[in-house]
Specification:
Structural class: mainly alpha
Largest sheet: none
Mean pLDDT: 83
Strand content: under 5%
Protein name: Sigma-70 family RNA polymerase sigma factor
Low-confidence stretches: 184-193
Order of helices and strands: HHHHHHHH
Keywords: Sigma factor, Transcription, Transcription regulation
Family: Belongs to the sigma-70 factor family. ECF subfamily.
Number of helices: 8
Pfam family, one: Sigma70_r2
Shape: flat
Oligomer: single chain
Helix content: over 70%
Length: about 190
């Protein structure tokens, strides 16, 4: 394994502690990732209670199956996000399929479109949350505050070239939301939608 491929030490240690059954490790993991898990689940499902349920399911799964995470495959954060995404999409499909059968309104194609739209939105949220702060700050100014690259450069105290670079890189990262299989996962890393 090349030096750059070595997973972060915290991820390896956390996986080992969870495998040993350390309850404190689960608490630390929850403190670090609960808002990420809940936010992704809520983005897919659009329902607070359902997102709470998915959050519980994710951490129960991690506790019961700590060896399912392989630190060589990528960061623990990405694995947790991928697990959340998969469970939330399964829940969305189940509830929407049941509603479709009960109400008879809508088609399976509309259901798939809804699932895909929710998945892409969740991936986009994950990408924005995960990108480096300088890129995220530039994008937030351009999008939410309707600032152009010159105004963004002035706001951030950087050159116009640097502002353009940050905006371009941020948008390139964001454009991958349609391409990924799961939040933050490179192709082939996580479960498909």
């Amino acid at each position: 394994m090349a030096k750059k491929d070595v997973p972060p030490r915290w991820d390896r240690k956390m996986q080992q502690r969870l495998a040993r059954g350390e309850a404190a490790a689960l608490g630390e993991l929850y403190d670090r990732f609960a808002s990420l898990v809940h936010g992704l689940a809520h983005r897919v499902l659009g329902d607070e209670r359902a997102a709470d349920g998915i959050t519980r399911e994710v951490f129960i799964h991690v506790w019961e199956h700590p060896d399912a995470y392989d630190p060589r495959q990528g960061p623990l954060r990405t694995w947790v996000a991928t697990l959340t995404h998969r469970l939330a999409v399964q829940r969305l499909r189940t509830t929407e399929t049941a509603a479709l059968a009960l109400e008879g309104s809508g088609t399976p194609e509309e259901l798939e479109h809804k699932v895909r739209r929710a998945s892409v939105a969740a991936r986009a949220d994950y990408i924005v949350q995960s990108m480096p702060v300088p890129l995220r700050s530039a994008l937030e100014r351009a999008y939410f505050q309707r600032r152009d690259y010159r105004q963004t450069a002035t706001d951030l105290g950087i050159t116009e070239d640097e502002a353009r670079r940050r905006l371009r890189l941020g948008l390139q990262l964001l454009s991958t939301a349609h391409d990924s299989e799961a939040p933050g996962a490179p192709p082939g890393h996580g479960g498909a939608v």
